[in-house]
Amino acid sequence: MSADTPQALAALEYVFASQRVAFNAAPMPLEEDRLRWLDALRDVLASNQPALIEAIAADFGHRSADETLLAEIMPSLHGIRYACRYLRRWMKPSRRRVGLAFQPASARVIYQPLGVVGIIVPWNYPLYLAIGPLIGALAAGNRVMLKMSESTPATGQLLKTLLAQIFPDNQVAVVLGDVEVGRAFARLPFDHLLFTGATPIGRDVMRAAAENLTPVTLELGGKSPAIVSSGVPLADAAERIAFGKCMNAGQTCVAPDYVLVPHDRIDGFVSAYRDAVQRLYPTLSDNPDYTAIINARQLARLQDYLDDAEAKGARILPLFAQAQQRRMPHCLLLEVNEQMRVMQEEVFGPLLPIVPYGDLDEALAYVNARPRPLALYYFGYDRGEQQRVLEQTHSGGVCLNDTLLHVAQDDLPFGGIGPSGMGQYHGHEGFLTFSKAKGVFVKQRFNAARLIYPPYGKWWQRLIYALFIR
């Protein structure tokens, strides 16, 4: 615990209490208020793009400016525009049917803000994974506290400064601090808590939330497979998998974690994949497009995976010479087995194991024998096989003949299943996650229900039973 931790914990409690008081004073913000919040958020992000790019690059040691634009700033701005466009439709109460036996009456569902929402942000996409859930929480009318990762201090401090320019702390507050602050944050009695990060930490967050019966959305990750079919052109599959695996140097929760390739296509895929990666990144050293591993601890973890795999019989194919400044060379791993850590744990880096298979049934059985992943990627143009993959596997989301890009679709829900998470957000699903859909049954002066009040045994009650209980 650092010397500043007790002060940070006291501030945490104070901010939470102030947000609770502010929410209770205005529990149903108007559409105009929510649009004003979202407009201000969009403006502050759009006008501070260079500073955001610089802060994220400082945290990584080197982060491709284009990757920050494409994977963080662009989807954040698009998500805000989408929410503003559809907010009125989302807020509108929905009419529901009332059965004949309960007439005359009406029913509707109204969507109320939950209250104070907590969002725990990971280090790999520190802007987008803060702003994405923040959009849904604000659109739904909530107060929000964001806990930034201690691994991205520059980004956390900048976001705290920028959001303080447009929101008071009792509306949106950015929390900085160490692991102890993060644990205390998860123990606050939020009305909803969203966590993005590693599965083991997700379990701890869920335990902490359970003490307050706080509902949680967990976005965790896991080992997302890519399946290369027997008929797809290898150049097509290799290039698209390479893009998804190399983005942010593989430090992406939905990055392809391993590739299933037919036995007789392994050599062809390796050649096509090497060509694709080296075309996208001709060099690593001093290449502005290739992102560094976030810190020395993560680099050591990935090197341990390589050493463990090699010691247990894997064949390692580096696609580049060793680079400096934590720019880890992309490596293919062949002849892998289940005893290797790289096949047991989420890779989260530029290492790609290749697993051979015989037919599609075998590939699907391999996927289904393992924990359900956050994403699944299938490469093949046969529509019948595509449908089999969709129907016979479970995952948080799917791309057919692409990687990553399903996450950027504002009109698709994003979320895991089982060990890869629970709950979902983005777009309308984000609004619903951070809202209470409250059922309302309305009856006015005339009360036909008196016909079924006691004492029982009347003839009209027997008639009602005959008409409606069958």
Show the helix and strand layout.
Blueprint (H helix, E strand, L loop, with lengths): L4 H21 L5 H16 L2 H12 L4 H27 L2 E3 L9 E8 L2 E5 L7 H12 L3 E5 L5 H14 L5 E4 L3 H9 L4 E5 L2 H12 L5 E4 L5 E4 L5 H13 L11 E5 L3 H15 L15 H16 L3 E4 L12 E4 L16 E7 L2 H9 L6 E5 L3 H10 L4 E4 L20 E2 L4 H7 L1 E8 L16 H10 L2
Parallel strand pairs: 3-4, 3-6, 4-5, 6-7, 8-9, 8-13, 9-12, 11-12, 13-14
Antiparallel strand pairs: 1-2, 2-16, 7-15, 10-11
Helix pairs in contact: 1-7, 2-4, 2-6, 3-4, 3-6, 4-5, 4-14, 5-14, 9-10
Description:
The model has no long low-confidence stretch (mean pLDDT 95). The protein has helices at residues 5-25, 31-46, 49-60, 65-91, 128-139, 153-166, 179-187, 199-210, 234-246, 266-280, 296-311, 360-368, 383-392, 427-433, 459-468; strands at residues 94-96, 106-113, 116-120, 143-147, 172-175, 192-196, 216-219, 225-228, 258-262, 315-318, 331-334, 351-357, 375-379, 397-400, 421-422, 435-442. The chain starts with a helix and ends with a helix. The protein has 470 residues and is an alpha/beta fold. A 7-stranded mixed β-sheet has the order 10-11-12-9-8-13-14, with helices on both faces. The chain has a 6-stranded mixed β-sheet with strand order 5-4-3-6-7-15, with helices on both faces. The protein has a 3-stranded antiparallel β-sheet with strand order 1-2-16. It is built from 15 helices and 16 strands. The chain folds into 2 domains: 4-220 and 420-438, Aldehyde Dehydrogenase, Chain A, domain 1; 225-408, Aldehyde Dehydrogenase, Chain A, domain 2, CATH 3.40.309. Helices cover 43% and strands 16% of the residues.
